[in-house]
Amino acid sequence: MADKLAIMLLTIDPDYPHLCGTPFFQAATAAAMDFEVEVYFASRAVRLLAKDVADRIYPSDNRAKSVYGFMQEAAQLGVKFYACGGAMDAYALKPDTMIPELAGVANATTFIGRVMDDEWRTVSY
Question: Domains in the chain, start-ordered, CATH in brackets?
Answer without folding.
Answer: 4-124 (3.40.1260.10)
